[in-house]
Structure formats: structure tokens, C-alpha cells
Write a structure and sequence with these properties.
65% helix; 5-stranded mixed beta sheet; Heat Shock Protein 90; alpha+beta; 718 residues; elongated
Length: 718
């Protein structure tokens, strides 16, 4: 047996003892109050033997050795004692034998002998009880009571079997949880790598191409050479520049002609976090140089291996973020780069008040894979199904009680509330906003049903409502925080005791009713929840090292796959040009024009990756080379946000763009505003009738696309 299964088995031992021990005390009290119920010596002998066996069970369970042997002896003694009843009754036999509570408890735990054996013991025991009770209460009522006893025994057996199955399922469930963690880590890494490469492309590739294309026929500017070398180094997977972060920022500020005041302490050693933070600050400074209208800025904060806090501020013209959303640079090189390492970026600005960009990152502590609420719910559902049966039996058997109260409608309403509580105990989330009202409603319902019970109500099934509410309270003990279910059970029984005393009934009478079952079941459910959680932790701890290694390998595989795909895509297009720039070779006018077109193509794919595939990029490039101006603007449309690349809507957009750009003459201006959920394509230029006709042929075959236009312009709405 695996260690985690032993934990569950040990909890079952304590649960069995929790069933037997209170009933042993109750039987002893009943025997003491009924001296003539048995022949001399029989009842004390049975009680002493059972007390010794209970003590033996407690000692072995406490030592962790296993209490199955003494518990099996308890079941055997209870069965023999019941079988001996016809020959050991005394001069004053009682309709309900004083030893019956503990003997019935022995039957309930018969699953400790074995599930198969309990299926024989329970019917035989129940038949014996029916034969003993029939002379006093009639055959049919005795059979009905025996049936309820048998059902209680089968419920106990099923509980033992279900908990053992749950214990054995821990290993599989933990492993499946790690599989989900691995899949989630893969997906997260893919997204983060895309964002990292988007930032690199924007900072290095686009920067080098833009600078070089602005100076044809001249030597390549040092800034373009440096960016091209850094981009090629990233393509080759070379380590990053070991220069300190502040020195890199100071060098970049000098290239931009900015006067930047630095007040930064510390350094980051994690290469990924360092690259992201360095790139984010570089882009923030670039943004200052391009848009602030000022030549000064300030970078302040601290760097560390556990946290990063930085602020880049400038006193420039600022902007209104709501009316002018951050551009591609801030999105990909600041916000996305920080997000790629689990950090965050906050951009605050206002017209005339400058801009402040705050960067923050905290090392996330890896938490153990905790049992999920779905797993807890799957575990408790079978018990709730059994609970519905128990609830129904208590309501049916207590019919004579609740139907005879002064206001039966209140009792019926109480039954409805108990049914709803039972259903909600397994469906609602285990949060404070739920379990506090739940406990209040249970206690109030018990109070109301106790108050409407007539003062002279017979003891038989007087406390049916405690039995009916037991499944709901047990489910609360299992699912809610420690003490909630047990505390609710104790409060409910205390309320019943107080009401009984106020009504002139024996305040202890509830002990012979359903209250012990309510208390024992609540404690047992709590013990089993703790045992299953402990078993989960043991399995999680034993599998953590291998699982974390598997997750780390998966993350690295995704990083390498994304890097390989991006390098392959970029090396064939911009690689040769970047090589010339890195070598310092000047560009001719035609080469500068080519670099300009390449920059535009790369930017298109960066702005709208879900739209611009290889074929469309070539079509847009050809149109630009032919004198058509094409501007592409788009939202953040990574896969998973909106429609995936290759879906129906991107195909419709591409079909329209291929038709439009293929027919557009020189001098046409095309504006593409792409969003996965909708957007527009507009065109203005000469001879738009032929372009409109070409686009109409395509739009006619598409659903949800609207085309309008005239001789000077056209608009396609998605």
C-alpha cells in the first residue's frame, strides 16, 4: 500500500472509532438505567470487552500501526452479542435493547472487515434487529426500522469504499494536475516568447532598418550598425551584452542626444528579466526622444533578483492615453516585454504634463500544486447522492412527527430548506461569503423545527430533522474550512437541548435520536477531508522534483521552437540586409528603398500578426513597390485573443486585400484597421471603379462583409 493510501486508511480507522466510542458510552448509560434488561453479567461483559477493543484500536491507530484487527474484533463481538439476545434478555426486557446503539455502530463499521463481508453482515444484522423488535412494535414497523438500519450500514460501507477509492485516485489526480500545469506552462511560454521576439524585432530589426533607410549613399550610422549586430546576435542565440543595465541605458541616451539623470541601484542577474527590463527602458527613452519634445528625462528606481521598481519620467508634452493609445513601441517593447517575464508596466500621461512609465517585477514563489476545488467536488458528489437517500428516509420516517405539528406548513418549508442546503453544500464555492450564511441557515432551520415540535412529542423519530440535515452539514465539514461543519453540528444539537429543556422534556433526550449521527458524521467528514489533503500533499511532494523538471523541459522546448520559427522567418528576409548594416557597408538608393519596404513589412506582421501571413506580406510589399501606399494598424491579436490565425475572418480579410492590392493603381492609398472581431479596409485613389469591381467579386462570396464606394474611394467593413 502506498504512503498516501495509508494516510486515508488511518483516517478511516479514526472515523470508525468515532462511530463506536460515543455509542459505547451511550449504551453503557442505557444499561446502567435498565438493570433488568439482561441476565446478570451479560451487558457488563460485552461493554468491557468492547471498551478493551476500543482502547486497543486507539493505541494502534495513534502509533500508526493500523487498527484494522481490533476493529474487526469489535464487529465480530457486536454480531455475536446481537445473535445472543434471545437467550440473554432479563426479567424486564425493553422494546429497544440498551446495547443496541453500540451493536448498531459495530454493524455500521463492518466494512473494516471488508466491503464484501459487510454486504453479508449488514442484511443478517438488520434481520436480527427486525426479529427482536417485531414482538414489541409489530412486524411491518420492525421491518421498516430494520430496513433503515440496513441502509445506514450500506451508507457506511459505501463511504469507506468511496474514500478508499478517492485515496487511490490521488496519485492519478496529482499527475493529471501536473499535466495541466505543463500544458499551461507551454502555452504561457509560447505567448511570452512571441512577446519577447516582437520586442526584439521592434527594437533591433525595425530600428536598424529605419535608421539605415534614412541615409542612402552614405556610411551606415553607428546606431544602425549596433542594432543590426545585436539583432544578428539574437538570431544566433549569442549571450546578451554583459555591460551593466545603467551603462547600456546611458549609452543609448547618448545616441539619442538625451540628457538623462540616472538614480538606479542594484542589478538583475536573471538574463530574461534583465533583457526585458533593459529593453523596456530603452524603448521608453526612445519614446521620449521621438515624441516628448524635450531633451531631458529621468530614470530612477532599484534592480534586484527578487524585485524591480523603475520609473522613467520626462517633462514633455505628454498625451491623453484614452484618446491616443500607446503605439506599437510602447505596447511591444515596454508593456509586452515586462509582461513576458511576469512583470507589469504602467503608463501615465496627460497633455502638457509629461509622461511617467513605471516598471515593476516580483519573483513569483512557486506554490505547490494544491487539490483543486473540482477534485474536492468530484470526491464529495457520491456522498451527496447517498445523503439524499438518508435525507429522504429521515423525512419519511419522521412523517408522523412533522405532520402533526400545529403548523405543518412550517415543517414542509423546513424540509424544502434542508433539501436546498444539501444541494448547495456540494455546488457552492467554499468561500466565507457562502459558509457563514450556510451555517446560519442550518442553525435557524433546526431552531424553528425544534420550536414547533409539540412538548409531548414521543421520543420515536422526534429528532428527524437532525437526521435530515446531517448530509448537508457533513458536506460542509468536508468542503468548508476546518470547524465550520463540526461547529454547526454542535450548535444545532445545543439548540435542540435548550429547546427540549424549555419545553419540559429531558434535555439529554436528543442523545438517543439523530444527534450522535450528526456529530459523528460531521467529525468523520472533516477527518476524511484532512486525510485526503494530506495524501495529496505526500504525493505532490514525492512527484514534485520530476514534475518540475518535466515542466522546465517543456518550457525550454517551447522557447526553442518559437525562437527557431522566428529566426527562420526573419533570417531569410531581413538577414542579408542586417548583415550588410552590421558590416558597415553603405546602402545605395535602391537598397535603402528595399530596407524601407522590409521595415514596413516587418512592422505589418508586428502590428497585425493574426492577419499578415507570408503571402499577404508579399502582396503588400509588391503593392508598395508599385507605388501604392499601404498603412496597417491593428489591435493586439495574439492567438487566443479573438479569432485564431487561419480562421474564417482572417481568410476573408486576406481575400479582400489580395483583390484590392492586385487591382490598385499607382497613387492609391490603402488604410487597413485590423481587429479580429471587426474592422475596416479603406482605399482612396484614381480609377477606383476597376478596384471596386475587383473587390465586389470577392465580397459577394463572403458573409458579414459590407462594401461601399464610388469613383474615388471604397470602404470594406467587417
Amino acid at each position: 500500500m502506498q504512503p498516501h493510501e495509508l494516510v486515508v486508511r488511518q483516517a478511516l480507522y479514526w472515523f470508525a472509532l468515532a462511530v463506536v466510542a460515543p455509542n459505547l458510552v451511550l449504551s453503557a448509560l442505557r444499561v446502567a438505567g435498565s438493570p433488568g434488561a439482561y441476565v446478570d453479567g451479560f451487558a457488563p461483559t460485552v461493554l468491557v470487552v468492547l471498551a478493551v477493543l476500543v482502547g486497543w484500536s486507539v493505541v494502534t491507530a495513534y502509533r500508526g500501526v493500523g487498527a484494522v484487527t481490533p476493529l474487526r474484533w469489535i464487529v465480530a463481538v457486536c454480531c455475536v452479542a446481537l445473535a445472543a439476545h434471545p437467550w440473554v434478555t432479563g426479567e424486564s426486557p425493553l422494546p429497544y435493547p440498551p446495547l443496541m446503539p453500540v451493536l448498531g455502530a459495530g454493524m455500521v463499521i463492518s466494512a473494516m472487515v471488508g466491503v464484501g463481508a459487510s454486504l453479508v453482515i449488514i442484511p443478517a444484522f438488520s434481520l436480527g434487529v427486525a426479529l427482536l423488535r417485531a414482538p414489541y412494535m409489530g412486524l411491518l414497523p420492525a421491518a421498516s426500522e430494520a430496513l433503515l438500519l440496513a441502509i445506514s450500514g450500506f451508507v457506511g460501507t459505501l463511504c469507506v469504499d468511496l474514500f478508499q477509492r478517492a485515496g487511490r485516485s490521488v496519485q492519478r489526480t496529482v499527475e493529471s494536475t501536473w499535466v495541466l500545469i505543463e500544458e499551461s506552462a507551454r502555452a504561457a511560454r509560447r505567448a511570452l516568447e512571441r512577446e519577447r521576439w516582437d520586442g526584439l524585432v521592434h527594437d533591433k530589426v525595425l530600428g536598424a532598418l529605419k535608421i539605415a533607410s534614412r541615409a542612402p549613399g552614405e556610411g551606415v550610422p553607428e546606431a544602425a550598425q549596433s542594432l543590426a549586430r545585436e539583432a544578428l546576435a539574437a538570431f544566433r542565440g549569442e549571450p546578451a551584452d554583459p555591460t551593466g543595465s545603467t551603462d547600456l541605458w546611458r549609452r543609448h541616451a547618448e545616441r539619442l542626444g538625451l540628457a538623462v539623470a540616472f538614480d538606479v541601484t542594484g542589478e538583475v542577474t536573471d538574463p530574461e528579466v534583465r533583457d526585458a527590463v533593459v529593453a523596456a527602458v530603452i524603448e521608453a527613452l526612445t519614446n521620449v526622444a521621438r515624441h516628448s519634445g524635450q531633451g531631458t528625462a529621468r530614470v530612477a528606481g532599484s534592480l534586484g533578483d527578487d524585485r524591480v521598481r523603475l520609473a522613467v519620467t520626462d517633462p514633455g508634452r505628454g498625451f491623453a492615453p484614452r484618446r491616443t493609445p500607446p503605439g506599437v513601441g510602447l505596447r511591444t517593447s515596454v508593456v509586452a516585454r515586462m509582461r513576458s517575464v511576469g512583470g507589469r508596466a504602467e503608463i501615465r500621461s496627460a497633455p502638457g504634463r509629461g509622461t511617467r512609465i513605471r516598471l515593476a517585477w516580483d519573483r513569483a514563489a512557486r506554490e505547490p500544486a494544491a487539490p483543486s476545488s473540482e477534485w474536492h467536488l468530484r470526491t464529495v458528489v457520491p456522498f451527496l447522492a447517498l445523503g439524499v437517500i438518508v435525507l429522504a428516509l429521515n423525512v419519511v420516517r419522521g412523517h408522523g412527527q412533522w405532520s402533526s405539528v400545529a403548523v405543518p406548513g412550517v415543517a414542509v418549508a423546513g424540509i424544502v430548506v434542508i433539501v436546498l442546503l444539501t444541494a448547495m453544500a456540494g455546488a457552492l464555492p467554499a468561500v466565507r461569503q457562502v459558509w457563514v450564511p450556510f451555517a446560519v441557515v442550518v442553525t435557524v432551520t433546526v431552531l424553528v423545527l425544534a420550536l414547533i415540535t409539540p412538548p409531548d412529542a414521543p421520543l420515536d423519530w422526534r429528532y428527524w430533522y437532525l437526521g435530515a440535515v446531517t448530509p448537508a452539514v457533513a458536506a460542509a465539514s468536508y468542503r468548508f474550512p476546518p470547524g465550520i461543519g463540526v461547529g454547526t453540528a454542535v450548535l444545532a444539537t445545543a439548540i435542540v437541548a435548550v429547546v427540549d429543556a424549555a419545553a419540559g422534556r429531558e434535555y439529554w433526550a436528543f442523545l438517543v435520536g439523530s444527534a450522535p449521527g450528526l456529530l459523528i458524521t460531521s467529525v468523520g467528514a472533516h477527518l476524511m477531508r484532512r486525510a485526503l489533503d494530506a495524501a495529496w500533499r505526500r504525493v505532490e511532494e514525492s512527484t514534485r522534483r520530476d514534475a518540475e523538471l518535466r515542466v522546465a523541459i517543456a518550457v525550454e522546448e517551447e522557447r526553442e521552437r518559437e525562437s527557431a520559427e522566428r529566426v527562420a522567418a526573419l533570417a531569410g528576409t531581413v538577414g542579408p540586409v542586417l548583415g550588410r548594416l552590421a558590416a558597415g557597408a553603405g546602402l545605395t538608393a535602391s537598397e535603402a528603398r528595399e530596407a524601407d519596404l522590409l521595415e514596413a513589412a516587418v512592422r505589418d506582421q508586428l502590428v497585425a500578426p493574426g492577419l499578415v501571413d507570408v503571402d499577404l506580406s508579399r502582396r503588400i510589399g509588391a503593392a508598395r513597390a508599385a507605388g501604392v501606399r499601404v498603412d496597417v494598424a491593428g489591435e493586439d491579436d495574439r492567438p487566443g485573443d479573438g479569432l485564431p490565425d487561419g480562421g474564417t475572418r482572417p481568410r476573408a480579410w486576406r481575400a479582400v486585400l489580395h483583390a484590392l492590392l492586385g487591382a490598385a493603381p499607382r497613387g492609391t492609398s490603402v488604410r487597413v484597421v485590423w481587429a479580429p472581431a471587426g474592422g475596416t479596409i479603406g482605399a482612396v485613389g484614381p480609377e477606383m471603379e476597376s478596384v471596386l469591381a475587383a473587390v465586389s467579386e470577392v465580397v459577394r462570396e463572403l458573409d458579414g462583409v459590407r462594401l461601399s464606394g464610388d469613383e474615388d474611394s471604397l470602404l470594406v467593413e467587417f
